[in-house]
Amino acid sequence: MRELQCDTESDSDGEFVGQNRIISPSVGWQTEVEFSQYRKNKDVDKKIIKLANEKNSLQELFKQFHVKFTEIYSPSGWTHKACCPFKDHRDSSPSFGYNPQLNRFNCFGCQKNGGATQFISYMENIPQIEAAKKLLKNHGSLQDSIIELENYKDKTDDLLIEFSSLIRNFIIEHKNNPNAQQFAESVTWSLDVYLSKNVMCGSIVVDNLEARIFKLKQHLNSFGKSNE
Prior knowledge:
By secondary structure, the chain is an alpha+beta fold. It has helices at residues 32-55, 58-64, 116-124, 128-136, 142-173, 178-201, 206-226; strands at 16-18, 21-23, 70-71, 80-82, 96-99, 104-107, 113-114. Strands 3-4-5-6-7 form a five-stranded antiparallel beta sheet, covered by helices on one side. It is elongated, with a radius of gyration of 25 Å.
């Protein structure tokens, strides 16, 4: 293919050249501004998919698609198993697992896994973003969902920033107390455990986070009073 030396021209293959690089229209953008918008759209798509997973119960979807489970004991939380419902997997023995606590599925045969969005995507053979938008229609308009997502993120960030400031002020206030540092670390560790567990599966609930931080504040206040 012949490369052009002009930013505004294109060759017969539809490739564009700019700043010593070729940019293909096939990816949906031709300039840095459009590429930035492309990346922004991708980020929005991820947020929409995450929100759809949070708002929709896999258990309800399993009922709609008549997926029948056998309950088993599992300390890991994967307490339900069934034959894989996906059409491209002929599952002769139950290899499809469901974890109600995480609201996630995992097929140990075909390796497909995820939440409500991924399940609909695989079942109906549609892109994940389309599956997510379809699921969110049950919870109001898509624009309302995006606004809710932004508010959720802002509130979560505010809560964590507030808690971080509280810990910092606590350590400064009790800097002459040798037990204060250890106490602050134990309080922070409690929150870290919750965050590490729930961030990975995208299941943080703002109200739950707020309640946990409120209790941790009470612990910090009780330490201060007991050491006056």
